Amino acid sequence: MKRLILLGPPGAGKGTQAKRLEEVYGLKQLSTGDMLRAEIDSDSTLGRRVESIMASGDLVPDHIMVEMIAKRITQPDCSKGFILDGFPRTVNQADELNQMLTNNKLDLDAVIEIKVDEEALFGRIQKRAEEDGETRADDNVLVLKNRLEVYHQLTAPITPYYNDKGMLKTVDGMQDIAKVASDIDAILGL
Ligand code: AMP
C-alpha cells in the first residue's frame, strides 16, 4: 500500500512512471488529465465545460478538480494505494487534498518531483506534438508554451510547499526511463 503524488512539468514523464507503478504494483493511477479527457470524449456537461480550457493549456477551476479527486481516492480500486498524476496543480488544491486525506484518515507515503531540464523538455514535447500531428504543430507549440507558463506560475509553488512539510523527494527525470523508475522504487521502498 503506497500513496504518492508525482510532481513535475508537462512532459516530465509522470504518466509513464504512474502507469508502470500501476502495472507492477497495482497502485491506481489517478490522472486528472485522463479523467477530464474521458469527460470530453463522453460529451458530458463537465466535458463541454472544460474542453476549451484544456485546449488552451489553462487550468480547470480548483473546485471541479477537488471534487473529482475526492470522489476517487476512497474507491475500492485505490485499496492498494494510488498515484496522483496531475493533481494537485495549485497550492489551493494541495491544501484541499490535505484536508480530504485527513478527513479520510489517509496518509501520503511520498511526494516525488521528477526534475527535468526545461529546454530539453520543450524539445521533447514539441517532438511529441509533431508526431501526434493531428492539429497544426504551431498551435501545439503555443499551447505548450502556455502550459509551461501556467506550470511555473501556479504549479511550481507546490514543490516548496511539500518541501516545507518535509515530504518532498526529487528524482532526476533526465535519466533513462528505467533509472527514473528504479529511483522512484527506492524512494518508496519497493
Ligand atoms: P495533463 O494530461 O495532466 O497534462 O492535463 C491536461 C490538462 O487538463 C491541463 O493542461 C489542464 O487544463 C487540465 N488539468 C489536469 N489536471 C488538472 C488539475 N489538477 N487542475 C486544473 N487543471 C487540470
Share of residues in helices: 55-70%
Biggest beta-sheet profile: 5 strands, parallel
Distance between the termini: 10 Å
CATH level-3 fold name: Rossmann fold
Mean pLDDT, to the nearest integer, reads 93
- Tell me the CATH superfamily: P-loop containing nucleotide triphosphate hydrolases
Order of helices and strands: EHEHHHEHEHHHEH
Bound molecules: adenosine monophosphate
- Please report the first level of CATH classification, the CATH class: Alpha Beta
Domains counted in the coordinates: how many? Answer: 1
User: How many DSSP H or I helices?
Assistant: 9
Strand order, main sheet: write it out: 2-3-1-4-5
Named at the architecture level, the CATH assignment is: 3-Layer(aba) Sandwich
Explained architecture:
- With 190 residues, the protein is of the alpha/beta class.
- The protein has one domain (2-188): Rossmann fold, CATH 3.40.50.
- It is built from nine helices and five strands.
- It has helices at 14-25, 32-41, 45-56, 62-72, 91-103, 118-132, 137-155, 158-164, 177-188, and strands at residues 2-7, 28-31, 81-85, 110-115, 168-172.
- It has a five-stranded parallel β-sheet, with helices on both faces.
- α2 crosses α3 (45-56), α4 packs parallel to α5 and α6 (118-132) runs antiparallel to α7.
- The longest helix is centred in the C-terminal third of the chain and has 19 residues, at 137-155.
- It is globular and about 40 Å long.
- The protein starts with a strand and ends with a helix.
- It binds adenosine monophosphate (AMP).
Task: Tell me the layout of helices and strands.
Blueprint: E1 2-7, H1 14-25, E2 28-31, H2 32-41, H3 45-56, H4 62-72, E3 81-85, H5 91-103, E4 110-115, H6 118-132, H7 137-155, H8 158-164, E5 168-172, H9 177-188
Adenosine monophosphate (AMP) binds at residues 10, 32-33, 36, 53-54, 57-60, 65, 86-87, 89, 93, 147.
